[in-house]
Amino acid sequence: MDRELNAAIEAALQAGGFLRQNFGKANALRHKSVTEIVTELDGQAEQIIAERLQSEFPHYGFLGEEGHRRESQKGFWVVDPIDGTTNYIRHIPVFAVSIGLVIGNEPVVGVVYQPMTNELFAAFSGGGATLNGQPIRVSQVDSLGKALLGSGFPYDAWTSQRDNLLQWGRAVKSAFAVYCTGVAALGLCDVAAGRLDGYWELHLHPWDIDAGACIVREAGGVVTQTNGKRFDPLGHTVLADNGRIHEALLTMVEEDQG
Ligand code: IPD
Ligand code: CA
Ligand code: CA
């Protein structure tokens, strides 16, 4: 996976450099839904990544949030060119480029780049996880009461029953603290680096979570769906933590509690 990892890193750095240069210049192009916006730079950054990865790996498929799609039985890249578009558009310097590679229903490569802090998280299956080339590990925190958690809210929260408010309320009452920074990919990397102890969301997309899931696992953490089932790279939920608080976090997030 060396070639794939290096290519994903180069693509993330290139797209991230482009986004950094244009930081403060993005305008909302259109609303994907009432609370979900996209800028012209989302599409341009995805184009940079798609060109790089599709020319070098024509046998892999591609699943990009902004529309680049190609099917393949051999595996596929999963790309979010800007995770945290709301932050980006409001000039909050917290967003990331996320690139995963899924083979055989497992995320086997993960690269997440935060252009404004120049933090590059990277991992491949069996190779460990790194931050700017240095190995990272999940935290040792062993109870929810001591845990710093992250989460977020879905774009359809105005209308959906699965709005995460119940779970968020439980977290406020039982965890040390809970943060929402609006960038799921970085939330997962923060778990991998031991900055957060756990992260969950109830309604995401593969491009938000696949790269981060690989990075958390390679840092020694545990990643499942929010119902406790095996992580699904084409699924919509994620629950990731240091392993020590997994059962407690699952119980907290469980949806059919009163
Ligand atoms: C969003 C972020 C956010 C999460 C949203 C996502 P986007 O991605 O990951 O953390 O709470 O549900 O859609 O739209 O900025 O790429
Ligand atoms: Ca996203
Ligand atoms: Ca995005």
Word description of this protein:
The structure is a single chain. By secondary structure, the chain is an alpha+beta fold. It folds into 2 domains: 134 residues, 2-Layer Sandwich (Fructose-1,6-Bisphosphatase, Chain A, domain 1); 110 residues, D-Maltodextrin-Binding Protein, domain 2, CATH 3.40.190. The strands form 3 sheets. Strands 4-3-5-6-7-8-9-10 form an 8-stranded mixed sheet, with helices on both faces. A 5-stranded mixed sheet has the order 12-11-13-15-14, with helices on both faces. β8 and β9 form a beta hairpin. α5 runs parallel beside α6. The relative contact order is 0.14. It binds D-MYO-inositol-1-phosphate and calcium ion (CA) (2 copies). D-MYO-inositol-1-phosphate (IPD) binds next to β5 and α3.
Jot down its keywords.
single chain; 258 residues; alpha+beta; Fructose-1,6-Bisphosphatase, Chain A, domain 1; D-Maltodextrin-Binding Protein, domain 2; 2 domains; 8-stranded mixed β-sheet; 5-stranded mixed β-sheet; 7 helices; 32% helix; 27% strand; globular; binds D-MYO-inositol-1-phosphate; binds calcium ion
- The structural class is alpha+beta
Can you tell me the residue ranges where pLDDT is under 50 for at least 5 consecutive residues?
none
Query: Helix count?
Result: 7
What ligands can be seen in this structure?
A: D-MYO-inositol-1-phosphate, calcium ion
* CATH fold node name of the largest domain: Fructose-1,6-Bisphosphatase, Chain A, domain 1
In sequence order, what are the helices and strands, one letter per element?
Answer: HEEHEEEHEEEEEEHEHEHEEH
Provide the CATH top-level class of the largest domain. Answer: Alpha Beta
